[in-house]
Amino acid sequence: MIRNRAKLGTDAVHEVALDCITAAVDAAAPEAATTSTVSRDGQTLTIGESTYDLDEYDDVVVVGGGKAAGGVTRALESILGNSLDDGHIVVKQAVGTETVRSTIGDHPLPSDRNVEATADILDTVDAADADTLVLFVLTGGASALLSAPAGDLTLDDLQTTTERLLSGGVPVAEINTVRKHLSELKGGQIARHAAPATVAGVLISDVVGNDLSTIGSGPSVPDETTYEDALDVFERFDLTPPPAVLRHLEAGRDDRIAETPFPDDSVFDHVTNHLIGDNATALDAAAAAAREAGYEPLVLASRLRGEAREVAKPLVAIAEEATATGTPVEPPAVLLAGGETTVTVTGDEGRGGPNQEFVLSGALVHNGNAVIAAVDTDGEDGSSDMAGAIADATDVDDRERARDALRTNDASSYLSEIGATVETGPTGTNVNDVAVIVVPETSG
């Protein structure tokens, strides 16, 4: 999976870190997550703890989107066979689906083809009736891939808003609060379009804490946020929305546009959402890989958030504490963490992302021999085509240059120069970031 692994595995400690990363991404593969949760026995379809009698439906369709939607859909096609009638998904990479149509969309900014494909999905869902089972596939990346501008908003309005929110260091939950109120699909509105059909959401989480209403901006989940909340995001992060977006949000705040459906809305009477994979799935697999290599794993958290360069520092301090005192874990050990850190962009032309900034910052402050690695499980970290990076303190030989790279958000350029970037290409999944700190056995 790691294309440049031969260059990165410079010693046994680096190899353990790479093994943990590989195990984490493999465990989050959408096909594996789907087949472990969805099964069929005759005409009974089981998803998690829910069952669906396929004989009760005239039509079964699959719709949705996201970076891992292709893998989930392929698995659903295999399980459903000729019981599946139709469908349409929007994905980042080409997939070999059969019954379900797939459109390659753009990410992280929505595009014309995203909007066109999403319109077709809405048409499919609008045509559903009480005798239809809608399997709604949703994974990370869907907030951009599934795009349906609300009211008089344009694609340009959505693109400009997304750019400002992403570059402003706004956490994903707050970004999605805005997206829900600029869309005809998000914030529970796929349920509004589908009613009275039965909807089974099949979700893979790329959200810290697995808030289902935040994954892909929650198209099939009740929304408790409001237009007022969306306006507050811009105010709190000192960002200016495009004029049309401001007018739209203000109209919603003033009750001139209907709110997204709240939890007590009857459109959710026949909707059940099923979480089939998340960051914990990846961390558990990484821990198993560490244990197999003879290292004691310690999962610190699956809810990392905040500025990546700052988040790295306390985790590195824990590695130093382990080396010095044997607490909270005795070396040789692997510290594991996951979540969704952010980068507030100040540089104009830098390349990189939160995982690369995490590694570079951690290596700069580390006073020890631990190996620090971090990747985005989708294989694309920030504005670069790298998944992340791996380094120890000795790898960062030009510390002044490294600090300057952090300052200008150009971590990827520096890490590429020293041969520390992790290259995977798109992985076909997305369960947030995974950080691995390998603490070797102390000598003497």
CATH homology group of the largest domain? Glycerate kinase, MOFRL-like N-terminal domain
Structural class, from secondary structure content? alpha/beta
Mean pLDDT: 95
Spatial order of strands in the largest sheet: 6-5-4-7-8-9
End-to-end distance, in Å? 36 Å
- Uncertain segments are none
- Text of the CATH class of the largest domain: Alpha Beta
Second-tier CATH architecture of the largest domain: 3-Layer(aba) Sandwich
Shape summary: globular
Oligomer: single chain
Number of domains: 2
Helix content: 25-40%
How many beta strands in the DSSP annotation?
15
Residues in β-strands, percent: 15-25%
Give the biggest sheet.
6 strands, parallel
Using the coordinates shown, work out and report the CATH topology of the largest domain.
Rossmann fold
Helical run tally: 16
As a whole number of angstroms, the C-alpha radius of gyration is 22 Å
Q: What's a quick, concise take on this entry?
A:
By secondary structure, the protein is an alpha/beta fold. Helices cover 37% and strands 20% of the residues. It has two domains: 5-27 and 280-439, MOFRL domain (glycerate kinase, domain 1, 3-Layer(aba) Sandwich), CATH 3.40.1480; 30-279, Rossmann fold (3-Layer(aba) Sandwich), CATH 3.40.50.
